[in-house]
Amino acid sequence: MTERSLRYGPDAAHLLDWYSAADPASSPLFVFFHGGGLEGGDRGNGKDPVFTELAGRGISVVSAEYRLYPRAKFPDYIEDAALAVSWCRANLPHSFLTVGGSSAGGYLSMMLAMDGRYLAAHGTDSKDRRQIAGYFCDSGQPTVHFNILRERGLDTRLIRVDEAAPVYFAAPPENPVILPLISLIVADNDMPNRPEQNRMMAKALLHMGWPEECVRFTEMKGYGHTGYNYAAAPDGSLVYPPMIEAFVKAAGELAERADS
Questions:
Q1: Distance of alpha carbon 143 from alpha carbon 230, whole angstroms
Q2: What b-and-e string marks burial along 55-76, b requiring 16 or more CB atoms within 10 Å of the CB?
Q3: Average pLDDT of the residues in 226-249
Q4: CA–CA separation, 141 and 97 (whole Å)
Q5: What is the pLDDT at residue 113?
Q6: Domain extents for the chain?
Q7: CA–CA separation, 196 vs 159, rounded Å?
Q8: Which of 62, 170, 190, 253 is the most exposed place for a label (fewest CB within 10 A)?
Q9: pLDDT band at residue 257, thresholds of 50, 70 and 90?
Q10: For the chain, percent of residues with pLDDT exceeding 90
Q11: How is 197-258 classified by DSSP, letter by letter?
């Protein structure tokens, strides 16, 4: 079952689609943000084959929209993502909650994970797996996003690290025992510097004391930027749903241990 165009906030862009598992109250919920460079893309038409398959596998999925360039400026879209996650946490049935996204959506997910202020504004602790079990950051940019550089009038190829960069917030965790899972995924033929930056992000978290069980880095061989999102395996099945399912299950196992 898919419920279309649920409103999570006051703006016209604050819409989401909910692909519900058969028993949503006892199923995990995966909140997903689309890509498009923070200036394009949308939540889809309510018939996304990846999300439909995940719902059939017992994982409810939310596909959320957010404000985009040129109407939106930093940090509007991050605030929207935090609002969407918090609305889902409060209003949709689930056993536990995870967050993810692809490309620009991966950047948004990484920012929510690392800069706790956005979710804290809605009463959610981004680094407590009992509240958000994990973050699926698919080909996100750990440094300042290229469209934010453009907004600043800078060369979009520059590497900058400040409060618009997820890696800026890599620091020793206050409570390592309850940290969520952060999964960083890239293609081996991704955008320039994207594999190296994500590998650096994973290394930075480990260097700062994040437990190894909470940090995963995966390089998808033989693909370009997010090329596996709708790719088929040799047997014809989609590649992406099992990746997300494995992440959700691993995040859920960590969350269960935090509760025990």
A1: 26
A2: beebbbbbbbbbbbbeebebbb
A3: 97
A4: 23
A5: 98
A6: 2-259
A7: 12
A8: 253
A9: confident
A10: 98
A11: HHHHHHHHHHHTT--GGGEEEEEEEEEETTTTTT-B-TTS-BSHHHHHHHHHHHHHHHHHHH
Decide: pTM greater than 0.90: yes
Q: Return contacts of 234-243, CB within 8 angstroms, 24+ apart.
A: 238/49, 238/50, 238/53, 240/50, 241/50, 241/53, 241/54, 241/57, 243/185, 243/218
What tokens appear for 47 in the block? 């018939």
Q: 2-259: which CATH architecture?
A: 3-Layer(aba) Sandwich (3.40)
Residue type, 165: A
C-alpha of 64 from chain center: 11
Phi/psi region, residue 234 (left: phi>0; alpha: psi -120 to 50; beta: rest), is alpha
Residues 6 or more apart whose CB falls under 8 angstroms from that of 152 comprise none
Token pair in block for residue 76: 């509007």
Decide: helix, strand or coil at residue 112. helix
Phi, psi angle pair for 220, to nearest 5°: -85, 115
Angle ∠(186,78,252) on CA atoms, nearest 5: 60
Extended beta strands in the chain, E state: 2-7, 15-19, 29-33, 60-64, 97-102, 134-138, 181-189, 215-224
